[in-house]
């Protein structure tokens, strides 16, 4: 298996370096990425230690080159030459002169480690997908979207916010909102779960934090989203391990931008337990926005968003009723309830013992109407034919629409997940330190 992956990796590398030399950087980058995927698999399955080392060295080498190309491409320069810069192309071209010093090597390793801990792809969540949370959205516009789109608005003493904390009970859309920011804004987005950072990289994590901020500064305008920021930044205490103390100090230093300018870098934090944050770190988040449980109109919008285009026969009154019945539910609770309800028609199909013919849009081509589709019905229906789902030809199956009783049924099984005491604590924190949505 290893040999196979290794061979494939080498094939991709050959193609990549040829394209690289011919300055076809976009295609070269694609081939490097494919090569890296194969190298990673080869590394995973290789048992021999010295072979592992060789593969790891290749991996690092081509990763560096791919990163250089990516940076170059993202600056919109498709064909201008990219210096080899100690990366793969340099070595394969045999142009010598490499010799990165140890510090660079260390930095590269950390950047690779970061690659595993951070997500850089743009999520696909739009502003309009986020129900309610108007204050938070407006604040994020001020902090993120305006400074990038209209930099001249932020001159002189008017400076954009550098640190924003989103806090509130679980499942209220803090991460979801951060994803919407990432999708809507033309900035590099780094998303890191601080629980991951602490658990996987303890000992190394302060260096990772430094590298994360370095990367963010290199790629500005950028947004660093730190989920569960409390696990990295809880109040300092005598019981803290040396590693955790170093991590907190480093985070403070980086957020201050000491010795570096943090212009163009916004730190967005999210937490369910803001009262656990270290006070010094809490202060670095200049804006602290409470993300509460959704009000009735927001809940109604959530039902609409999560149902989307799924065929249903819900009336506006049904929607109001659902919103009314879900007081105390978080956005996450509602999305689970909707998923459950959307399965209702599938269950009806599975349980059906009788079907009848109806006309409707063809499952294969919704533009065409067919008059011999089959849908479940009660055994007493005059047109009922006894059969089960498996007897229905797939292209003749008409899926029943989701109905309001599917939601009522789902609500019996999905209960609100946030406890009232939790809300009280959040309200107290908001009164003391926050800003309410
Ligand atoms: N305001 C909202 N509008 C639309 N959907 C929402 C909203 N809030 C939550 N959801 C739904 O709930 C899911 C979970 O939300 P999310 O992960 O953002 O919550 P969170 O506040 O970050 O929770 P946690 O603190 O547990 O990480 C989202 O993927 C989304 O489907």
TrEMBL record:
Keywords: ATP-binding, Membrane, Nucleotide-binding. It is found in: Membrane. SUPFAM superfamilies: MIT domain, P-loop containing nucleoside triphosphate hydrolases. This is Vacuolar protein sorting-associated protein 4A. Residues 160-295 form the AAA+ ATPase domain. Residues 84-98 have a biased composition (Gly residues). Residues 71-109 are annotated as: Disordered. It holds the Pfam family MIT. It comes from Paratrimastix pyriformis. PROSITE patterns: AAA. Residues 71-80 have a biased composition (Basic and acidic residues). Gene3D superfamilies: 1.10.8.60, P-loop containing nucleotide triphosphate hydrolases, Phosphotransferase system, lactose/cellobiose-type IIA subunit. Residues 2-79 form the MIT domain. It comes from the Eukaryota. Belongs to the AAA ATPase family.
């Amino acid at each position: 298996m290893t040999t196979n992956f290794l061979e494939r990796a080498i094939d991709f590398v050959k193609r990549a370096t040829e394209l690289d030399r011919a300055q076809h950087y976009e295609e070269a980058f694609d081939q490097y990425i494919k090569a890296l995927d194969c190298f990673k698999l080869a590394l995973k399955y290789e048992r021999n230690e010295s072979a592992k080392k060789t593969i790891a060295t290749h991996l690092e080498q081509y990763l560096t080159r791919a990163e250089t190309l990516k940076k170059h491409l993202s600056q919109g320069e498709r064909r201008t030459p990219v210096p080899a810069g100690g990366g793969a192309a340099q070595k394969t071209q045999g142009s010598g002169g490499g010799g990165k010093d140890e510090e660079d090597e260390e930095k590269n390793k950390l950047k690779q480690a970061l690659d595993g801990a951070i997500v850089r792809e743009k999520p696909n969540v739009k502003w309009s997908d986020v129900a309610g949370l108007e204050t938070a959205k407006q604040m994020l516009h001020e902090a993120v979207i305006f400074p990038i789109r209209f930099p001249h608005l932020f001159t002189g003493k008017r400076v954009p916010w550098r640190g924003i904390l989103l806090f509130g009970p679980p499942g209220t859309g803090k991460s979801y909102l951060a994803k919407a920011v990432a999708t809507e804004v033309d900035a590099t987005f780094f998303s890191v779960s601080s629980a991951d950072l602490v658990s996987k990289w303890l000992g190394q994590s302060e260096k990772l934090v430094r590298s994360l901020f370095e990367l963010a500064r290199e790629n500005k305008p950028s947004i660093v989203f730190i989920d569960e920021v409390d696990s990295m930044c809880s109040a300092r205490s005598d019981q803290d391990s040396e590693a955790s103390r170093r991590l907190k100090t480093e985070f403070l230093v980086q957020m201050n931008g000491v010795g570096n300018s943090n212009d163009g870098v916004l730190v967005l934090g999210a937490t369910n337990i803001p009262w656990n944050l270290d006070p010094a770190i809490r202060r670095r988040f200049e804006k602290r926005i409470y993300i509460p449980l959704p009000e009735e109109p927001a809940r109604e919008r959530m039902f609409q968003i999560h149902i989307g285009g799924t065929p249903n026969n819900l009336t506006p009154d049904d929607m109001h009723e659902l919103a009314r019945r879900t007081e105390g539910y978080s956005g996450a609770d509602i999305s689970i309830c909707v998923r459950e309800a959307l399965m209702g028609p599938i269950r009806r199909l599975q349980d059906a013992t009788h079907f009848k013919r109806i006309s409707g849009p063809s499952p294969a081509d919704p533009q065409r109407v067919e008059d011999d589709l089959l849908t479940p019905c009660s055994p007493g229906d005059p047109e009922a034919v006894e059969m089960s789902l498996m007897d229905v030809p797939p292209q003749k199956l008409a899926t029943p629409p989701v109905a309001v009783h599917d939601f009522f049924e789902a609500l019996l099984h999905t209960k609100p997940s946030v406890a009232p005491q939790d809300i009280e604590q959040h309200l107290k924190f908001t009164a003391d330190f926050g800003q309410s949505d």
